Amino acid sequence: MVLAEIMMGTEVLLSIHFVQLIIRYQSWPFSYFGNMNKIQTYLLTTAILLSSLSLVQSQDYFLERFQPYDADITTPEEYFGYGIGEYHTRHDMMVSYLELLASQSSRASLIDYGKSHEQRRLVMLQVSDEKHISNLEEIQRKQLAFLDPNSDLTLEDMQDHPILVNLGYSVHGNEPSTSEAAMLAAYVLVASSNDAISRYRDDAVVIIDPALNPDGRDRHTQWANALRSQPFVTDPMDAEHNETWPRGRTNHYWFDLNRDWLLAVHPESRGKLEWYHQWYPGVVGDFHEMGTNSSYFFEPMKDNGSLHPIMPIENYTSITDSFAQYYTREMDDLGSFYFTKEVFDGTYPGYGSSYPDLQGGLALLFEQASSRGHAQDTDFGVLTFPYTIRHQFFNSIATVEAAVDHRALLQSYQRSFFTSAIENAKKSGIQAYIIGEKKDVTRMNAFIELLLRHQIRVYRSTQDHQITGQNFEEGSSYIIPTGQPQYRMVQTMFETYEEYRDSVFYDASAWSLANAYDIDYAAVRGRLALGEQVVMEDLALQLQTPELSNYAYLVDWSDYHSPAVLQALHDNDVNVMVAQKAFENDGKYFANGTLVIPVQRQDIEAEQLHGIVSEVSMNKGVVIHGVSTGYSTGGIDLGSRYVEPLIAPRAAMLIGDGVSGYEAGFVWHLLDTRVSMPITKIKTSMFGRAQLDKYTTLVLVSGSYNMLDSADVARIKSWTAKGNTLITIGRASSWAISKKLVNESLLSKEPPTDSLAAKRLSYIKAREIQGKEALGGTIFEVDIDITHPIGFGYDDRRLPVYRNNTVWLKPSKNPYCNVAVYAEDPHIDGFVTPEVLAHLKKTSSIVVSRVGRGRAIMFAEDPNFRGTWYGTNKLFLNAIFFGDLVRIP
């Protein structure tokens, strides 16, 4: 009778007993709803909503199993003023709660490991028995000593050593169930007196990282709470379930931090890596969310796409399978559906669920269907926020349980991991890798810094070497021996692959970072003498102040930071010119692209100019040469017509719905953090109000640009034709061609000539078959025109580029406009079919097209990919700083 009245819209008061009954229903699997008719399902979900939709009248929904609790320890509900799952919790409140737990209990301590871009604290709560918490320094020392292949410690010596378990949450900020589960896990592990929890504290140190991406999480938290309704609106069309661009997944610069463990671009990742290599936890939990209509995923994953994965096989077979039994039990007991062995793979080594695998740990991925708000309709009924949190919470505790039960096995495995690294290096036959870079010290140092962050040992070369036709000179080359504990990370940095067991990858199929930094390297099979070991402090450049000149200063454009120098000079209103041809002056060779700073053609005095030049040189770490004559002993003189004045670019970029937030973030981050150049970010929805004539350069990254109409397209074309520079990347290049902004075209793939080629294929294999046609992240070699302004700063025509799209730019009919084309044998690393490779070779990588008095510079690939492609960043920066020099014959 009550349910009938509810259905009719009559207001009723639900008894406490009935509310508790409704809450109990939430623990049932969605499959239960499938056994009810539509009216019953409607009545049940309506009743849930009418119970104020807090859905958690008591935290017993989560905590009942682990009673009793220490009454002196504050519960999350007592501290926040609401039950977990009723609201989304702000990051500062989570940090404060963890601080409180650490102050209330000797079983916990809180550490800071860094700050985010937006200055939010990055913290971890360490939880264990009192005797372990008071002895953490000794536990850390023993852990590191045990993992040293040269250590005398045995497994027997580790019998009383706790297993280290790191539980990591919310690396994607809009996957909120994870951090809420972290609060529950922290409370239970600190406050529970349950025998099982006490045992976990005895045998483990659990390190809880509540939010690896606090900036993105707070962006999403603000959105979800701001649009929270009473009663909840479960309609998926409601704004609460649909964040606006750029959404909370990414960090401040719109990067995906779950790809940054290997790349170490951001402070969040760098802080975590520094901590990680001080502890080497045996188990790492990586908690995520996925699509609302999914169920729950835990490992084992889909088979690794690599033909011969470099991690030991027991990592992703027997040990993972053993842990899966614990998650199976949890989910079966809850009656919740789940899946394994599908979709997700650990091929790319830079995830939170794969990087620890290359450090001897067991990394475990969890994916929960997301309510994307507080409650949302799905194909299976209403999915509530507490329901999503419950799975993450129970599997967090199950991870600790499994780690404790397998403590000896995990310790033995982790020790053998680093021992086998030395053995595998010997078997490989490669003694070392040698790297060299003569001109761009900044780029070389950036690569070495990355190696050191991953604890890879690097040594100076003590003599000149010629290996595989490459010259590596003493003073500009370094040696990375393979016989070191981080051998598998050395493989990750240098090895390239052609054969794979799969054609569909969750992410990239190539990641040889020596190619990303465009570093010359060679494998060495003989022994090389090792010089001094390199440490971070050695990478600081020792520069001398430029000599005072009354004629001119010169800046070699080959250094990675040269664009930052130019921007700083523009900021100081210094007139700068650029030499488009090479020359020799004062006994030194200067390539095309060299900046020329005249002394007499300035609005400031010579001494003031010298002060500016000196400060810029020191701050940016780039040598600036003072010269006393414009006469060159070779090449052009400084008064040549090939030495042209530069204008300070004023750049804008379109962002917003229909635009790749990742690629836009790559541009923003590059200009913001490495060039100190402002770029105006214009929302596509506000484009009609933008005064384009304020800008000299417009950047369009990949996107559909559906918000722009024909009038907007005409404005862009008219603005470009006035003499300005349009830069397009990836799918934006396709868009520009389709909208006839440029007189260029795409190269269509040719249909099969054999009529019998249209054959019957298995429907269930469609994804795998079609996946072969995609490029999920592959490295190719291009040939660049280093005489072109876009190619300034390069002395080698060969350049590795990263491609993860199928934008096929047809070569321009103008032979001067194909700035970069693919090499004769372009494949360097990653999966590609012979058919796709053959088609790729017919296309161009960079095409410049005339638009009236202006130009469009079109990139097929993203030259700024994930803040890591130091080798191709210069191409993009040349387009910005030298775009107006491009005059198409």
Summarize the structure.
33% of the residues lie in helices and 19% in strands. The protein is built from 28 helices and 33 strands.
Overview of this structure, please?
By secondary structure, this protein is an alpha+beta fold. 33% of the residues lie in helices and 19% in strands. The protein is built from 28 helices and 33 strands. The longest helix has 22 residues, at 407-428. It starts with a helix and ends in an 8-residue tail after the last helix.
Task: Please render the helix and strand layout as text.
Blueprint: H1 2-7, H2 16-26, H3 30-33, H4 38-50, H5 60-63, H6 76-80, H7 91-104, E1 108-115, E2 121-127, H8 130-133, H9 136-147, E3 163-169, H10 177-191, H11 195-203, E4 204-209, H12 214-226, H13 260-263, H14 267-279, E5 283-290, E6 296-298, H15 318-334, E7 362-369, E8 375-378, E9 381-384, H16 385-405, H17 407-428, E10 432-436, H18 441-453, E11 459-461, E12 465-467, E13 470-472, E14 477-481, H19 487-494, H20 513-516, E15 520-524, E16 530-533, E17 552-555, H21 562-571, E18 577-579, E19 583-585, E20 588-590, E21 595-598, H22 606-620, E22 624-627, E23 634-635, E24 643-645, E25 651-655, H23 661-675, E26 679-683, E27 697-700, H24 710-721, E28 725-729, H25 731-738, H26 766-771, E29 778-784, E30 798-803, E31 818-829, H27 834-840, E32 844-851, E33 854-859, H28 870-881
Parallel strand pairs: 3-4, 3-5, 5-7, 25-26, 25-27, 27-28, 28-33
Antiparallel strand pairs: 1-2, 2-4, 6-7, 8-9, 10-14, 10-15, 11-14, 11-16, 12-13, 17-21, 17-22, 18-21, 18-24, 19-20, 19-23, 29-30, 29-31, 31-32, 32-33
Helix pairs in contact: 7-10, 10-16, 15-16, 21-22
